[in-house]
Design a protein that fits this description.
Elements lengths: L11 H7 L2 H9 L2 H13 L12 H11 L4 H7 L3 H4 L3 H16 L3 H13 L3 H11 L2 H5 L2 H5 L6 H12 L5 H7 L4 H23 L10 H13 L5 H11 L5 H10 L2 H13 L5 H11 L2 H13 L3 H10 L5 H13 L5 H15 L6 H10 L6 H10 L3 H14 L7 H5 L5 H10 L5 H12 L5 H8 L10
């Protein structure tokens, strides 16, 4: 999947792509055709940089409801000939998730589309998962025949069916089909369930990683074999060292951290940092200066995991360095520094935005640190990140930091956050939005009564309004 093209934050499309609350508020006041066009654009061209963790489906489904939107564009997208050519889940996953939420709100047209796609579409397993949560038994039983017809009845087809049943995210349809009164359905599904369970047991009995009795050298060699085949294994390898290494092995591990192979060096650095070895920080500094890019990344990551006061003190000395170790030092101070570290954390925050923009990965930790340390001078930068980032998770972190640093948050961004796509952001808004705005009170009531809303959000809402006010 290519990185999505995100429109400017001041446009309706840009707001909706980011999942901002202002996107919904602007869409409800825009001409309906324009709003629906922007909404369809987002649903059919997933705007998320990380579609597996960022939320959009409930946000878009609610807007379809508010706009009384038709589903013709989604139907055309799902059953386009490209569905056969592009089998990536990311092409249709968001549209199917939106349909799932719409079905839970009672949209029969959405339910019918899901059923049809589960029977005929390429990403049928996702549609079946959505139906497993929303459809009745009769609707699911009707899908047994078309789903099973996807798998040939030869040995290869039955093995594929067994793997599909074993790895199903939602097991309800398969359990229902295992008890189907039609022998042709129940027999195949039960056989697949049994084969899947046996396969899982076999895999557990054939471990491919380190075993008890391995030496330190064997662990290092295993980590290096991972490097040679493109798999970074230094993290599990470091855990293995914790099990097999004794005090007598320390010289060998230190030597590997200084000049070992890439896999051994990454493993040794991680192990020494996790065990708070007295030489760990010196070895990390040396690795950043002399190591390859993977070694530098492993060294920086190992340093950021250290919790000792010595590591925090060293971070104060490294914070001004113009290299990855300096950036990591800023993040360490953001996580574990004290009030005296506000200035370097603020400097690191500003430098990251200037140098890498509002979507820099380092901002996640620095934004949290600005809120934790109560850096009020960071509010302008946090507001910029909130407006411009394409990551709804980072925007939520910025909202939490603004709640701790910006006195205007309750009457400003907190209001629009009540419509945000991320439930954690809506929860922050529910706790801080000033109820003097009539939109806030109305929205709190709607969230309290919405069965699709997360429990944490509804708990926060009910802490602001009484039970008698929750009726919509």
């Amino acid at each position: 999947m290519f990185d999505p093209v995100i429109a400017p934050s001041g446009t309706l499309l840009g707001l909706l792509q980011r999942g901002r609350g202002d996107g919904t508020l602007h869409a409800l006041t825009a001409p309906r055709p324009e709003a629906l066009a922007a909404l369809n654009h987002c649903v059919l061209r997933d705007p998320r940089h990380d579609w597996q963790v960022e939320n959009r489906s409930l946000y878009y489904a609610r807007l379809y409801l508010d706009l009384h939107g038709e589903l013709d564009a989604i139907e055309a997208h799902l059953f386009d000939p490209e569905d056969v050519l592009d089998t990536e889940e990311s092409r249709t996953g968001l549209a199917l998730a939106v349909l799932g939420h719409l079905a839970s709100y009672g949209r029969r047209d959405a339910l019918a589309l899901l059923r049809r796609y589960a029977a005929h579409g390429t990403n049928w397993a996702w549609a079946l998962d959505e139906l497993a949560l929303r459809d009745d038994d009769a609707g699911l039983r009707a899908l047994a025949a078309p789903v099973l017809a996807r798998f040939a009845t030869d040995a290869e087809g039955e093995a594929e069916l067994a793997a599909t049943v074993r790895d199903a995210f939602e097991p309800r349809p398969w359990r229902l089909w295992a008890d189907d009164p039609r022998p042709s359905v129940a027999t195949r599904v039960r056989a697949a369930q049994e084969a899947g369970c046996f396969d899982r047991w076999q895999r557990q009995m054939r471990p491919t990683g380190p075993r008890p009795g391995w030496s330190v050298r064997a662990v290092f060699e295993w980590a290096q074999r991972g490097v040679e085949r493109g798999a970074a294994l230094h993290v599990p390898a470091a855990r293995c060292l914790s099990a097999v290494a004794g005090p007598e092995d320390r010289p060998e591990i230190v030597q590997a951290a200084e000049d070992g192979t890439e896999g051994a060096r990454c493993t040794a650095l991680r192990y020494l940092a996790d065990s708070n070895d007295p030489d760990a920080l010196t070895l990390i500094e040396r690795a950043v200066a002399t190591g390859s890019a993977p070694v530098v990344d492993a060294a920086v990551d190992a340093f950021e995991r250290m919790r000792s006061l010595t590591a925090v003190d060293r971070a104060r000395g490294w914070a001004r360095r113009p290299d990855p170790l300096g950036a990591a030092a800023g993040r360490v101070l953001a996580c574990r520094g004290g009030l005296q570290d506000r200035d370097p954390v603020l400097a690191a925050l500003r430098e990251a935005v200037r140098g890498e923009g509002p979507d820099a990965p380092t901002l996640w930790t620095l934004v949290d640190g600005a809120g934790r340390l109560g850096i009020t001078c960071a509010a302008p930068v946090l507001r910029h990140i909130y407006r411009e980032t394409a990551s709804s998770h980072l925007r939520g972190r910025a909202a939490r930091a603004l709640a701790a640093t910006d006195s205007s948050f309750g009457t400003g961004f907190a209001v629009e956050c009540l419509w945000d796509c991320e439930e954690t952001t809506r929860e922050v808004a529910a706790r801080h939005a000033e109820t003097g705005d009539t939109r806030v009170v109305d929205r709190l009531r709607r969230l309290a009564a919405d069965p699709a809303e997360e429990a944490e959000v509804q708990t926060a809402v009910r802490s602001r309004i009484g039970p008698e006010e929750t009726a919509v």
